[in-house]
């Protein structure tokens, strides 16, 4: 009888082992899915925006975004100081116009005094937009000098990004001044990719978790 | 036809809507106090007031000015007695004089928004008005004097 029981136990051992391994694999799978492919709605959004966390895809997309944001067309109006930058070399704007409290200049040196609603024809003439301005003095949204990691973290922080939530950040890709970067007037280099490619990378970065690249 | 209000006077001008406001002011209306300098908003000689702002009329299309309030150097005061004009005269600011209608129009906006400007305020406000004769120090001195005249005028009212 005892011998028969021992034979039965030995017979059940491989089945137990398979069951334990199966349970373990399921747990690992669930954890992995939970960590890397977590799907969650973004709080406070009006539209049904869903993010699917994927740190690798997110960082890859941000690298593209960064090349655009650091190009002259974007960075020139996100200077580290209070004077905008100018030209493909991002030098200080001639005449040293000042940011002012609202980002629209000061006294006789307001942006719209020279920058019209549309580009002025000809080389070395002021580019135009109906809402030409720098970020305001109380939220400067500096791009100049920011590392990819610093800029990524800044962009998703409402206290540093103009109080924008995720939905508003996505919509910002079609903001009039952002679009003006791809219509810069004669003699100015365009950002390093099309607006459509930028928008795709921007949305990919945000909807995969807005991960900041590693480093400083 | 485009309807304009220049120096509180109504004008109807037959002009291309894309024509620079400066062309209209000088060549059509005939007010030649505003000067052409660079034509690309770099020098400030063509500054006029558009609803109180110191716009550069060489790059401002006349269509932007339609129905708005335009003031040129000729309309800044009734009798050349704007505090900036009085101070410019008092300090003998101009040398050749070419840039000074633009300089005074820019200074007038500064004085309207800041009755007691510091040297830094003046530099910030006037940095876009170039003077080939280099009268900058006299300009700064005149703006301080104009501010003083303006304050006295305000106090006596």
From TrEMBL, chain A:
Keywords: Membrane, Transmembrane, Transmembrane helix. The chain crosses the membrane at residues 12-35. It comes from Mucilaginibacter aquariorum. The lineage of its organism: Bacteria, Pseudomonadati, Bacteroidota, Sphingobacteriia, Sphingobacteriales. This is Cytochrome c domain-containing protein.
UniProtKB/TrEMBL annotation, chain B:
Residues 1-76 form the 2Fe-2S ferredoxin-type domain. It comes from Mucilaginibacter aquariorum. It comes from the Bacteria. Gene3D superfamilies: 3.10.20.30, [2Fe-2S]-binding domain (1.10.150.120). CDD domains: fer2. This is (2Fe-2S)-binding protein. Keywords: 2Fe-2S, Iron, Iron-sulfur, Metal-binding, Oxidoreductase. InterPro entries: 2Fe-2S-bd, 2Fe-2S-bd_dom_sf, 2Fe-2S_ferredoxin-like_sf, 2Fe-2S_ferredoxin-type, 2Fe2S_fd_BS, Beta-grasp_dom_sf, Diverse_Oxidoreductases.
């Amino acid at each position: 009888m005892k011998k028969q029981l021992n034979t039965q136990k030995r017979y059940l051992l491989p089945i137990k082992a398979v069951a334990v391994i199966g349970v373990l694999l399921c747990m690992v799978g669930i954890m992995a899915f939970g960590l890397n492919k977590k799907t969650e709605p973004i709080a406070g959004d009006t539209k049904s925006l869903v993010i699917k966390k994927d740190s690798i895809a997110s960082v890859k997309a941000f690298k593209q975004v960064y090349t655009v944001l650091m190009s002259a067309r974007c960075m020139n109006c996100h200077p580290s100081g209070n004077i905008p930058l100018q030209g493909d070399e991002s030098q200080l704007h001639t005449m040293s116009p000042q940011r002012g409290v609202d980002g629209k200049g000061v006294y006789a040196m307001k942006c719209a005094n020279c920058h019209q609603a549309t580009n002025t024809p000809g080389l070395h003439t002021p580019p135009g937009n109906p809402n030409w301005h720098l970020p305001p003095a109380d939220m400067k949204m500096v791009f100049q000098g920011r590392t990819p990691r610093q800029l990524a973290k800044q962009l998703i922080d409402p206290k540093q990004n103009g109080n924008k939530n995720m939905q508003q950040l996505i919509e910002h890709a079609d903001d009039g001044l952002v679009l003006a970067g791809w219509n810069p007037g004669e003699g100015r280099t365009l950002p390093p990719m099309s607006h459509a490619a930028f928008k795709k990378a921007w949305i990919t970065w945000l909807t995969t978790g807005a991960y900041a690249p590693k480093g400083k | 036809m485009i309807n304009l209000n220049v120096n509180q006077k109504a004008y109807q001008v037959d002009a291309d809507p894309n024509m620079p406001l400066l062309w209209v002011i000088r060549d059509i209306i005939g007010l030649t106090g505003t000067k052409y300098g660079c034509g690309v908003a770099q020098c400030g000689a063509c500054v006029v007031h558009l609803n109180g702002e110191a716009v550069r009329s060489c790059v401002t299309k006349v269509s932007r000015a339609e129905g708005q309030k335009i003031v040129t150097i000729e309309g800044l005061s009734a009798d050349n007695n704007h505090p900036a004009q009085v101070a410019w005269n008092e300090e003998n600011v101009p040398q050749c004089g070419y840039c000074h209608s633009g300089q005074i129009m820019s200074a007038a906006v500064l004085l309207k928004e800041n009755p007691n400007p510091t040297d830094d305020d003046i530099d910030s406000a006037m940095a876009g008005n170039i003077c080939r004769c280099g009268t900058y120090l006299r300009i700064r001195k005149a703006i301080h004097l104009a501010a003083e005249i303006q304050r006295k005028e305000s106090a006596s009212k």
